Amino acid sequence: MVLDEHIDHTGTSDHEKDMVDACRSQLTTNEMKALLMNVLNGAIDTTTTTMVWTMSEIIKNPRVMQKLQEEIRRCVGRKSRVEESDVANMTYLKLVVKEALRLHSTVPFLLTRECVKHCQIGGYDIFPGTRVLINAWGIGRDPKVWTESASIFNPERLENLELDRSEMIPFGGGRRACPAASVATQIVEYTIANLFYSFDWQLPSGMKNEELDMEEVGSLIVVRKTPLSLVPVKHDWQD
Ligand code: HEM
Protein backbone atom coordinates (compact mmCIF):
# COMPACT_ATOMS: atom_id res chain seq x y z
CA MET A 1 0.00 0.00 0.00
CA VAL A 2 1.53 3.30 -1.07
CA LEU A 3 0.32 5.13 2.03
CA ASP A 4 2.13 2.76 4.35
CA GLU A 5 5.53 3.98 3.23
CA HIS A 6 4.85 7.56 4.15
CA ILE A 7 2.46 7.66 6.98
CA ASP A 8 3.33 7.29 10.63
CA HIS A 9 1.28 4.59 12.30
CA THR A 10 2.28 5.49 15.82
CA GLY A 11 0.20 8.59 16.35
CA THR A 12 -3.55 8.91 16.28
CA SER A 13 -5.70 10.81 18.77
CA ASP A 14 -4.39 12.66 21.83
CA HIS A 15 -6.35 10.25 23.97
CA GLU A 16 -4.54 7.32 22.40
CA LYS A 17 -1.14 9.01 22.86
CA ASP A 18 -1.96 9.33 26.56
CA MET A 19 -2.72 5.63 26.64
CA VAL A 20 0.58 4.76 24.94
CA ASP A 21 2.54 7.01 27.33
CA ALA A 22 0.80 5.36 30.25
CA CYS A 23 1.87 1.95 28.92
CA ARG A 24 5.46 3.11 28.53
CA SER A 25 5.67 4.15 32.17
CA GLN A 26 3.57 2.02 34.49
CA LEU A 27 -0.12 1.42 34.22
CA THR A 28 -2.22 2.04 37.28
CA THR A 29 -5.14 -0.32 37.78
CA ASN A 30 -7.58 2.30 36.57
CA GLU A 31 -5.55 3.03 33.45
CA MET A 32 -5.33 -0.67 32.73
CA LYS A 33 -9.12 -0.96 33.13
CA ALA A 34 -9.68 1.99 30.78
CA LEU A 35 -7.33 0.47 28.19
CA LEU A 36 -9.07 -2.88 28.38
CA MET A 37 -12.51 -1.26 28.13
CA ASN A 38 -11.36 0.61 25.01
CA VAL A 39 -10.16 -2.61 23.37
CA LEU A 40 -13.27 -4.52 24.44
CA ASN A 41 -15.68 -1.83 23.23
CA GLY A 42 -13.91 -1.65 19.86
CA ALA A 43 -13.80 -5.42 19.59
CA ILE A 44 -17.47 -5.99 20.43
CA ASP A 45 -18.92 -3.20 18.25
CA THR A 46 -16.92 -4.12 15.15
CA THR A 47 -17.55 -7.84 15.48
CA THR A 48 -21.29 -7.63 16.17
CA THR A 49 -21.76 -5.02 13.44
CA THR A 50 -19.98 -7.27 10.95
CA MET A 51 -22.25 -10.17 11.97
CA VAL A 52 -25.37 -8.03 11.51
CA TRP A 53 -24.27 -6.85 8.05
CA THR A 54 -23.36 -10.41 7.03
CA MET A 55 -26.79 -11.68 8.15
CA SER A 56 -28.51 -8.80 6.37
CA GLU A 57 -26.76 -9.58 3.08
CA ILE A 58 -27.52 -13.30 3.38
CA ILE A 59 -31.21 -12.67 4.10
CA LYS A 60 -31.45 -10.20 1.23
CA ASN A 61 -30.01 -12.80 -1.15
CA PRO A 62 -32.03 -16.07 -0.89
CA ARG A 63 -29.79 -17.76 -3.48
CA VAL A 64 -26.77 -17.19 -1.23
CA MET A 65 -28.70 -18.29 1.86
CA GLN A 66 -29.72 -21.58 0.25
CA LYS A 67 -26.22 -22.35 -1.02
CA LEU A 68 -24.69 -21.42 2.34
CA GLN A 69 -27.10 -23.54 4.38
CA GLU A 70 -26.55 -26.52 2.08
CA GLU A 71 -22.80 -26.22 2.61
CA ILE A 72 -23.04 -25.78 6.39
CA ARG A 73 -25.46 -28.71 6.87
CA ARG A 74 -23.44 -30.94 4.51
CA CYS A 75 -20.19 -30.21 6.39
CA VAL A 76 -21.70 -30.62 9.86
CA GLY A 77 -24.15 -33.49 9.42
CA ARG A 78 -26.60 -34.10 12.30
CA LYS A 79 -25.29 -32.62 15.54
CA SER A 80 -26.63 -30.32 18.24
CA ARG A 81 -24.46 -27.47 16.95
CA VAL A 82 -21.54 -26.59 14.68
CA GLU A 83 -18.08 -27.17 16.15
CA GLU A 84 -15.13 -24.90 15.40
CA SER A 85 -13.33 -27.67 13.50
CA ASP A 86 -16.31 -28.00 11.08
CA VAL A 87 -15.82 -24.45 9.80
CA ALA A 88 -12.45 -25.25 8.17
CA ASN A 89 -14.23 -27.05 5.30
CA MET A 90 -16.83 -24.34 4.67
CA THR A 91 -15.32 -22.58 1.68
CA TYR A 92 -18.50 -20.77 0.65
CA LEU A 93 -19.06 -19.43 4.18
CA LYS A 94 -15.58 -17.87 4.09
CA LEU A 95 -16.40 -16.16 0.76
CA VAL A 96 -19.73 -14.91 2.18
CA VAL A 97 -18.07 -13.32 5.24
CA LYS A 98 -15.26 -11.84 3.14
CA GLU A 99 -17.72 -10.33 0.67
CA ALA A 100 -19.71 -8.84 3.58
CA LEU A 101 -16.48 -7.32 4.94
CA ARG A 102 -15.72 -5.87 1.49
CA LEU A 103 -19.09 -4.12 1.25
CA HIS A 104 -19.34 -3.18 4.90
CA SER A 105 -16.02 -1.94 6.25
CA THR A 106 -17.36 -1.31 9.75
CA VAL A 107 -14.56 1.18 10.49
CA PRO A 108 -14.92 3.22 7.28
CA PHE A 109 -11.98 5.63 7.74
CA LEU A 110 -9.66 3.40 9.82
CA LEU A 111 -7.48 5.08 12.47
CA THR A 112 -6.25 8.55 11.52
CA ARG A 113 -2.64 8.65 10.27
CA GLU A 114 -0.15 11.50 10.52
CA CYS A 115 2.22 12.04 7.61
CA VAL A 116 5.90 12.16 8.71
CA LYS A 117 7.58 12.82 5.36
CA HIS A 118 6.59 14.93 2.33
CA CYS A 119 5.10 12.71 -0.37
CA GLN A 120 2.75 12.83 -3.34
CA ILE A 121 -0.33 10.68 -3.68
CA GLY A 122 -2.42 10.85 -6.82
CA GLY A 123 -0.70 14.11 -7.76
CA TYR A 124 -1.46 15.77 -4.41
CA ASP A 125 1.29 16.97 -2.07
CA ILE A 126 0.97 15.61 1.45
CA PHE A 127 3.12 17.54 3.92
CA PRO A 128 4.51 16.33 7.25
CA GLY A 129 2.00 16.75 10.06
CA THR A 130 -1.01 16.30 7.77
CA ARG A 131 -3.71 14.09 9.23
CA VAL A 132 -4.79 11.51 6.67
CA LEU A 133 -8.02 9.52 6.59
CA ILE A 134 -8.08 6.36 4.48
CA ASN A 135 -11.47 5.53 3.02
CA ALA A 136 -11.59 1.76 3.52
CA TRP A 137 -15.34 1.77 2.80
CA GLY A 138 -14.75 3.39 -0.61
CA ILE A 139 -11.82 1.09 -1.42
CA GLY A 140 -14.04 -1.98 -0.97
CA ARG A 141 -16.56 -0.52 -3.43
CA ASP A 142 -14.18 0.96 -6.01
CA PRO A 143 -15.64 0.15 -9.47
CA LYS A 144 -12.11 0.30 -10.98
CA VAL A 145 -11.28 -2.82 -8.99
CA TRP A 146 -14.68 -4.38 -8.39
CA THR A 147 -16.35 -3.40 -11.70
CA GLU A 148 -19.76 -1.79 -12.17
CA SER A 149 -21.33 -4.44 -9.94
CA ALA A 150 -19.18 -3.31 -6.99
CA SER A 151 -22.17 -2.59 -4.76
CA ILE A 152 -23.80 -5.98 -5.38
CA PHE A 153 -23.31 -8.75 -2.83
CA ASN A 154 -21.85 -11.64 -4.78
CA PRO A 155 -19.54 -13.97 -2.80
CA GLU A 156 -18.63 -15.91 -5.97
CA ARG A 157 -16.68 -12.87 -7.24
CA LEU A 158 -13.98 -13.69 -4.66
CA GLU A 159 -13.55 -17.28 -5.79
CA ASN A 160 -9.96 -17.90 -6.96
CA LEU A 161 -9.30 -14.16 -6.82
CA GLU A 162 -5.74 -13.13 -5.97
CA LEU A 163 -6.19 -9.91 -4.00
CA ASP A 164 -3.64 -7.16 -3.67
CA ARG A 165 -3.21 -6.00 -0.02
CA SER A 166 -4.85 -2.68 -0.84
CA GLU A 167 -7.97 -3.81 -2.75
CA MET A 168 -10.07 -4.34 0.35
CA ILE A 169 -8.88 -3.30 3.81
CA PRO A 170 -11.68 -3.85 6.36
CA PHE A 171 -9.02 -4.52 9.02
CA GLY A 172 -6.77 -1.64 7.97
CA GLY A 173 -3.12 -2.10 7.07
CA GLY A 174 0.46 -1.53 8.16
CA ARG A 175 1.64 -1.37 11.74
CA ARG A 176 -1.70 -0.19 13.11
CA ALA A 177 -3.79 -2.85 11.37
CA CYS A 178 -6.31 -4.73 13.49
CA PRO A 179 -4.30 -7.26 15.52
CA ALA A 180 -7.38 -9.47 15.79
CA ALA A 181 -8.23 -9.71 12.06
CA SER A 182 -7.83 -13.45 11.87
CA VAL A 183 -9.60 -14.32 15.12
CA ALA A 184 -12.40 -11.80 14.46
CA THR A 185 -13.05 -13.38 11.04
CA GLN A 186 -13.16 -16.82 12.66
CA ILE A 187 -15.63 -15.61 15.32
CA VAL A 188 -17.94 -14.18 12.64
CA GLU A 189 -17.70 -17.34 10.50
CA TYR A 190 -18.36 -19.63 13.47
CA THR A 191 -21.35 -17.61 14.70
CA ILE A 192 -22.92 -17.34 11.24
CA ALA A 193 -22.38 -21.09 10.71
CA ASN A 194 -24.25 -21.89 13.95
CA LEU A 195 -27.09 -19.45 13.28
CA PHE A 196 -27.71 -20.78 9.76
CA TYR A 197 -27.21 -24.42 10.75
CA SER A 198 -29.91 -24.53 13.42
CA PHE A 199 -32.40 -22.03 12.06
CA ASP A 200 -34.12 -21.03 8.84
CA TRP A 201 -34.51 -17.25 8.90
CA GLN A 202 -37.51 -15.28 7.74
CA LEU A 203 -38.33 -11.61 7.50
CA PRO A 204 -41.19 -10.45 9.74
CA SER A 205 -44.84 -10.17 8.60
CA GLY A 206 -44.52 -11.16 4.97
CA MET A 207 -41.81 -8.62 4.12
CA LYS A 208 -40.00 -9.44 0.85
CA ASN A 209 -36.21 -9.89 0.74
CA GLU A 210 -35.79 -7.05 -1.71
CA GLU A 211 -37.65 -4.73 0.68
CA LEU A 212 -35.03 -5.11 3.42
CA ASP A 213 -33.62 -1.67 4.08
CA MET A 214 -29.80 -1.60 3.82
CA GLU A 215 -29.27 2.07 4.62
CA GLU A 216 -26.11 2.80 6.62
CA VAL A 217 -25.40 5.40 9.32
CA GLY A 218 -22.33 6.41 11.32
CA SER A 219 -18.79 7.57 10.68
CA LEU A 220 -16.63 5.89 13.34
CA ILE A 221 -18.50 2.64 12.87
CA VAL A 222 -21.05 2.15 10.10
CA VAL A 223 -24.18 0.38 11.34
CA ARG A 224 -27.64 -0.33 9.94
CA LYS A 225 -29.97 2.68 10.04
CA THR A 226 -32.90 0.41 10.95
CA PRO A 227 -32.32 -2.50 13.31
CA LEU A 228 -32.32 -5.95 11.70
CA SER A 229 -35.42 -7.81 12.76
CA LEU A 230 -35.69 -11.49 11.76
CA VAL A 231 -37.78 -14.52 12.71
CA PRO A 232 -35.79 -17.69 13.51
CA VAL A 233 -37.57 -20.94 12.60
CA LYS A 234 -36.04 -24.13 14.02
CA HIS A 235 -34.81 -26.19 11.06
CA ASP A 236 -36.95 -29.23 10.28
CA TRP A 237 -34.61 -32.04 9.20
CA GLN A 238 -37.48 -34.24 7.86
CA ASP A 239 -35.53 -37.51 8.15
C1 HEM B 1 -14.92 -8.05 12.40
C2 HEM B 1 -14.42 -7.46 13.47
C3 HEM B 1 -13.37 -6.37 13.45
C4 HEM B 1 -13.12 -5.42 12.50
C5 HEM B 1 -13.85 -5.19 11.16
C6 HEM B 1 -12.01 -4.63 12.98
C7 HEM B 1 -11.46 -3.56 12.29
C8 HEM B 1 -10.42 -2.79 12.77
C9 HEM B 1 -9.85 -1.66 12.07
C10 HEM B 1 -10.29 -1.17 10.69
C11 HEM B 1 -8.88 -1.16 12.84
C12 HEM B 1 -7.99 0.05 12.48
C13 HEM B 1 -6.86 -0.45 11.60
C14 HEM B 1 -6.10 0.65 10.86
O1 HEM B 1 -6.35 1.84 11.08
O2 HEM B 1 -5.24 0.31 10.03
C15 HEM B 1 -8.81 -1.94 14.06
C16 HEM B 1 -7.93 -1.70 15.10
C17 HEM B 1 -7.89 -2.47 16.26
N1 HEM B 1 -8.63 -3.59 16.53
FE1 HEM B 1 -10.03 -4.42 15.34
N2 HEM B 1 -11.62 -5.10 14.21
C18 HEM B 1 -12.42 -6.17 14.54
C19 HEM B 1 -12.36 -6.94 15.69
C20 HEM B 1 -11.44 -6.78 16.71
C21 HEM B 1 -11.35 -7.61 17.89
C22 HEM B 1 -12.25 -8.83 18.16
C23 HEM B 1 -10.36 -7.09 18.67
C24 HEM B 1 -9.82 -7.55 20.01
C25 HEM B 1 -10.10 -8.68 20.59
C26 HEM B 1 -9.82 -5.94 17.97
C27 HEM B 1 -8.80 -5.15 18.45
C28 HEM B 1 -8.28 -4.05 17.79
C29 HEM B 1 -7.24 -3.18 18.35
C30 HEM B 1 -6.56 -3.33 19.71
C31 HEM B 1 -7.00 -2.20 17.37
C32 HEM B 1 -6.02 -1.03 17.46
C33 HEM B 1 -4.68 -1.43 16.87
C34 HEM B 1 -3.68 -0.29 16.99
O3 HEM B 1 -4.06 0.82 17.34
O4 HEM B 1 -2.49 -0.53 16.71
N3 HEM B 1 -10.49 -5.79 16.79
N4 HEM B 1 -9.76 -2.93 14.00
From TrEMBL:
Query: Which top-level group of life is the source organism from?
Result: Eukaryota
Q: Which Pfam families match?
A: p450 (PF00067)
Q: Provide the binding site for heme.
A: C178
Entry cofactors: heme
Q: Localized where? A: Membrane
PROSITE patterns hit by this protein:
CYTOCHROME_P450
User: Could you confirm whether the keyword Transmembrane appears in this record?
Assistant: yes
Instruction: Give GO cellular component annotations, separated by semicolons.
Output: membrane
Q: Which GO terms describe its molecular function?
A: heme binding; iron ion binding; monooxygenase activity; oxidoreductase activity, acting on paired donors, with incorporation or reduction of molecular oxygen
**Of which family is this protein a member?**
Belongs to the cytochrome P450 family.
Name of the protein described by the UniProt record: Cytochrome P450
Q: Which organism is it from?
A: Lactuca virosa
